[in-house]
Amino acid sequence: MRSRNRPPASTSLPVIGHALPFVRNPIDFLLRQHQTHGDVFRLALGPLEINMIAHPDLGLRILKQGLSGFRKLPEHRRFIRGIMTDGLVTSLPDLWKRQRKELQPRFSYKEVEKRAS
Question: Which residues contact 8 (CB under 8 A, 6 or more apart)?
Fold first, then answer.
């Protein structure tokens, strides 16, 4: 039975978790997880458990309201920073606020329309 605070996850291998299918074909793997478990699901990548979101409304809520209620554990940040730099996804609250403030004007309706045409 799954804990109330933990998203669902597929069965994974000991030690490596979901790393093998994830590395083989990340897009297909994540799409299958989303189809199986819905908009929020959990991955085990080696020793890390990562909660994934796959719904734009939840992503928007996180980007708009900030990180209250969402934790970024140091080991997750180290893992993600091996792949990405300190962007909106990986940065801690103070840096996140600064980055969001800098980027916000680029996502106004007028700017998006200008870049889309």
Answer: 2, 37, 38, 41, 42
pLDDT tens digits, residue range 49-106? Answer: 888 888 888 888 777 776 566 666 677 667 666 666 667 666 777 887 888 888 888 8
Q: Which two tokens stand for residue 99?
A: 């980055």
93: nearest Cα among 75, 57, 69: 69
What predicted TM-score, i.e. pTM, was given to this entire model?
A: 0.58
By the 10 Å C-beta count (0-12 exposed, 13-18 middle, 19+ buried), 43 is classed as buried
CA distance 28 to 76: 22
Would the CA dihedral through 33, 36, 41, 45 be positive or negative? negative
Please, what sign has the CA dihedral across residues 16, 3, 77, 22?
Answer: positive
